[in-house]
Write a structure and sequence with these properties.
Layout: E1 4-7, H1 16-32, H2 38-41, H3 50-59, H4 66-80, H5 90-99, E2 103-107, H6 112-121, E3 130-132, H7 145-154, E4 161-165, H8 168-176, E5 180-183, E6 199-200
Parallel strand pairs: 1-2, 1-4, 2-3, 4-5, 5-6
Helix pairs in contact: 1-4
Length: 214
């Protein structure tokens, strides 16, 4: 019997990743003449940008100033923040799970302020008494540490939980922690190949509540 569902945040609850890709691509093209492909970007989705920037630096004649780049990215992101919406069917799924008495948590490689800011904006903070973020672990996804902490705080074992992810890195983290993982890709991650132990579904509308009985 499943007692808890643990949700990734970026790309799973809100599709911030498509927005990030568009902004990264625009700035890199405008200021560095660099064409960032989706293939390279998706390698770091669900984790950190370090490897991506190492790749970009190797491709440019002059290493990029990452601090300046992040400032520019964040500035542009603020102009579209209000346009972002919850992924279709997410709210209905969370309400159903709460009504069934399922424990809920967020486990994300982002920082806590980022996660809580969006959850408060959409009135979701009450659904997630447990939030595990990059602030709580030394290594983020694909390392399973975030899921291990979430399981401990929920007071459940790995086989009593379900993870919901959108990325390869996130799904590897969940599976490595021994948690059954549902994968709901977004426009950025849809082209990825996922671990064979992950259960791929098209949308939250396909969430099978019978999984809770297993």
């Amino acid at each position: 019997m499943k007692k808890a569902v643990i949700f990734d945040f970026d790309g799973t609850i809100i599709d911030t990743e498509s927005a990030w890709f568009d902004i990264y691509q625009e700035i890199l093209k405008e200021q560095h003449g660099f064409n960032l492909t989706l293939e390279e970007f998706v390698k770091v989705v669900g984790s950190t940008d370090g490897d991506l920037f190492d790749f970009i630096d190797q491709s440019l004649d002059v290493p990029m100033n990452r601090t300046v780049f992040y400032d520019q990215v964040n500035s542009r992101f603020e102009t579209i923040r209000e346009q972002l919406a919850l992924r279709e069917g997410f709210l209905e799924t969370v309400k159903q799970l709460k009504e069934r008495g399922v424990l809920l948590a967020v486990a994300s490689s982002s920082n806590r302020n980022w996660i809580e800011g969006f959850l408060n904006k959409y009135g979701l903070i009450e659904y997630f008494p447990i939030i595990v973020s990059a602030d709580d672990v030394e290594e983020v996804k694909p390392n399973p540490a975030i899921y291990n902490v979430a399981l401990k705080r929920l007071g459940v074992t790995a086989d009593e939980a379900i993870a919901v992810e959108d990325s390869y890195n996130g799904s590897i983290a969940a599976i490595s922690a021994g948690v059954h993982c549902l994968i709901i890709p977004n426009d950025v991650t849809r082209s990825l190949s996922f671990h064979e132990k992950g259960q791929l579904i098209e949308s939250f509308a396909d969430f099978d509540y019978r999984l809770l009985e297993q």
